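Long-time lurker. I teach an intro course on protein structure, and each term I like to show students one example going from raw sequence to a predicted 3D structure in C-alpha cell notation. This year I'd like something fresh instead of my usual example. Would anyone be willing to generate the C-alpha cells for the chain below so I can use it in lecture? Attribution to the forum is fine with me.
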Amino acid sequence: MTGVLWRTWADTHRARPRRTAAPTGTAEVAASVRAAAEEGMRVRMVGSGHSFTDVAVTDGLMLSPSALTALRSVDPGAGTVTVEAGLPLCDLNDRLAERGLALANMGDIAVQTVAGAVQTGTHGTGRDSGGLAGQVVGMELVLADGSVVECSAEREPELFQSARVGMGAFGVVTALTMAVRPAFLLHAREEPMPLEEVLERLPQLRADNAHFEFYWFPHTGNTNTKRNNISDGPARPLSAFRAWLDDDFLSNRVFEYTNRLCRRLPSLVPAVNQVSSRALSSRTYTDVSHAVFTSVRDVRFVEMEYAIPAEHLADVLREARSIVDRGGHRVSFPVEVRFAPADDVWLSTAYGRDTAYVAVHMYQGMPYEAYFADLEAVFASVGGRPHWGKLHTRDRAYLEGVYPRLGEALEVRERVDPGRRFGNAYLDRVLG
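-- Reply from a regular --
Happy to contribute to a lecture. Here you go:
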C-alpha cells in the first residue's frame, strides 16, 4: 500500500511513507526488510502512535505490527511469556490474567503495543521494579540484512542490552520474552496532600510503598498522591458508579471541557487548578494489578518527561513551581512524578541510578514550547535524561554525557545496521 498518511496520537508528527505493509509473521518482516534494502528504502515499525516524538516516522517502508499479536508461549514454571510485537498491553494483561499471571509493573496507560512501549522506555512507578524493558528477558529481531536473531543476557548480550530500549535502531522487534509473576491484587490509596509535605516526606513515602506517585497542580501548592501496595485481598474494586464518576466523567469528560475553556481563556487556568485540586476526594480500593496501574486517557495532550537523579527531585520541583508562579505560563495539566530503581539496560532512562520521573503536559492546541523549554533547562541542569518517546530537544552531544554506555550501544548499531536501514531524522539527532 502506498501514500497512506500516518500520524501520532497527539498529532505532533505525521508521515506519508512510500509504502506500508502489515506482515503476518517474522518471515514476512524479514522479506519486507530485504525488499526495502533492494529499493534503497529505510524501514520503521510503528506501534500505536503514542510517542510524541518522530521516533517512528519514515518516508520509506512503514511496517505495521497489527497482525503480530500472538501469545506464542507461556512458561509458568520459568515465569516467562513470549509475545509478538504488536499485541497491545491491555490485551496482554487480559491474556495473562486468564492464566493467573501478571506483569510486575506497568505504566499508566495500556493501549500501546508491547514492542513500542518497551522500545521507547515506557515505565511505571516502583520501589523495587521500574520500566517494562527491565522485565524483558529475551528478544527476537530482524536485522538490517534480513536475518533473524534471538538475543538475551546469555546470547548476543551486547545486542540485548542495546536493543531492549533501542527505539528500533538495532532491528525490527518481532517478539519479546517477558518475565511475569503470579497474578496479584493491589490496594490503592489516593488522597490530596500539600506539595511541601510530599517533598518533606518523600523518603518515607517511597520506602513505605511498593508503588508511589503524585500529581502536582501548577499554580497551586496542592498534589494528589497515589500509594499502591500488594494485598492479600479480598478484592474490593470501585463501584461501577464511582469508577464511572471519577475515571470517566470527571477525569475525561469534565477535564476535556475545562481544558477547552482554558484554551480559549488562559487567564482562568490558576483558578480552575485551585478548584480542581481541592475538589479531589480520598479513595481506597483493592483490585487486580493492571486495573490499578492503568487508566483511560481520552483527553489529548502533548508531553515532555525527564528522568532525573532522585536526590534532585525536591529542588527541581521547587524551581518548576517558581517558574510557573512567575506568571509566564498557564498550565492546566498536573505535573506527574514517578520513581524507579536503578536498572542495567544501557539506554534506559533509569540506567545506573535511582530515578525520579517528572512529566509535564499541555492540552492539545495550547502553546507549550516556552513552558517545556523553561523546564527542560532545569531538568538538563541536573543531568536529566529525556524519555525517548516524549518531546525534547536533546541531541547526541548531550546524551553522550548522561548515558555512560551510549558509545558501546552505538558500536553495536554500527555492527548490525552500518547502512542505517532503520534510521530516520529522530535517530540521526539522538544517536548520530
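Some talking points for your students: The first strand starts at residue 6 and ends at 7. Residues 240-264 form the longest helix (25 residues).
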